[in-house]
Amino acid sequence: MLIEENKPLAPFTTFGIGGPARWFVEAASEEEIAEAAAWAGERRVALFVLGGGSNLLVSDAGFDGLVLRVALRGITSADAPGEPGAPETTNQTEQRIYQVAAGEDWDHFVERTVQDGCAGVECLAGIPGTVGGTPVQNVGAYGQEVASAIERVRTFDMQEHKTKEFDASECGFAYRRSRFNSADRGRYIVTRVDYRLTFGGAPTLRYADLQRAFADGEQPSLAEVAAQVRRVRQAKGMLIVEGDPDCRSAGSFFKNPVVDEEQLRQIAAASDHAPPRFPAGPGAENLGRVKVPAAWLIEQAGFTKGYRLGAAAISTRHTLALVSLGDRDERGGASAAEILALASQITAAVEERFGIQLEMEPVMMGF
Fold it and tell me: For the chain, percent helix, then strand, then coil, each to nearest 5?
């Protein structure tokens, strides 16, 4: 296991922002993850687990600890076993289990499932990052969340120093949340995720942008839906394209707030018309609540696409994305401080007008 010192972190993030790691290591196996965790524990230094860097803002000072980059690779698939006691006539090939190492590129995995004819994650095409981050954030877009497809999550427990697996029901999934980024934040390192997908299943067409793309009665293929999702993402600056300045971001910088009826009336009273709303999702905690688009709140608070503060700016294509412009100095782009200053300006304006406090979505490292 090679541990490097003063490793620049900006190249490992889609923002391209941030200072160096005091120590840095890539782990290509569960054994190396355990070794790195032990190394950090023995020296009492902080440990940060790095995946694809697509949902991350690194401080300008960097990170004074060990950054562990998860580099486990491998994808296997097999027909899912039938339910105990199911009739012999049950088609045992309808469900397929994919076991995917945490370091695999997420979009590469989605493309693999689409080519295999397995439905369940096709609307999550084009999302940057690695597989290991998907259960942590309960990644979702365009009518799907990984929570609906995850069968099991395999982890390394840094408290007990052993591997531990969680069924989906044990992961505490909610909107952009799981036990891994809430109650057990920092305890578990995801090493593998198992997905249960439907072989021969129909694509999910809940999202309006996708419904409009296909004629009434048309039955698009999984590949057609995934391709349309990528087109929509690119139009909004949410697809990583080499040389595109709108791609120097962490995607959606703010979560869509989930509000109750009283807060919804408060928002409506502070604006000229009723706000758009969407179902808050399943779960008792969402009963009587709805999701309001953060982008709409930001625009109503007076911010427009392309608005800039120093070398930090709102994307020219989507109000929800903050980007790092490439004209700062020889390093190029904004500082982390500038990104946070812009984010603070936005959240203060939204709270002042609507009484709603926006929550930032990216993980903060080194602050």
Answer: 30, 30, 45
User: Is position 176 annotated as part of the catalytic site?
Assistant: yes
Of 198, 214, 235, which one is at a domain's C-terminal end? 235
**Does any domain span residue 271?**
yes
Q: Does 173 reside within a domain?
A: yes
Domain of residue 327: give its range: 245-365
- Among the listed residues 182, 360, 142, 340, the one whose alpha carbon sits nearest the alpha carbon of residue 257: 360
Residue 298 lies in a domain: yes
286: tokens are 């969402």
Same domain? 165 vs 252: no
Residue 59 appears among annotated catalytic residues: no
Single-letter residue type at 352? E
First to last CA, the chain: 27
Q: What is the pLDDT along the chain (367 residues), one digit of tens a residue?
A: 899 999 999 999 999 999 999 999 999 999 999 999 999 999 999 999 999 999 999 999 999 999 999 999 999 999 887 654 544 444 445 899 999 999 999 999 999 999 999 999 999 999 999 999 999 999 999 989 999 999 999 999 999 999 999 999 999 998 889 999 999 999 999 999 999 999 999 999 988 888 888 877 788 999 999 999 999 998 888 887 777 777 889 989 999 999 999 999 999 999 878 899 888 776 657 778 899 999 999 999 999 999 999 999 999 999 999 999 874 444 468 999 999 999 999 999 999 999 999 999 999 999 9
Catalytic residue among 59, 178, 252, 315: 252
**64 and 95: one domain?**
no
Phi, psi torsion values for 3, nearest 5 degrees: -105, 120
CA dist 171 and 50 (Å) reads 20
* In a domain? residue 240: no
Please tell me which residue in 176, 233, 248, 289 is annotated as part of the active site: 176
Decide: pTM greater than 0.70. Answer: yes
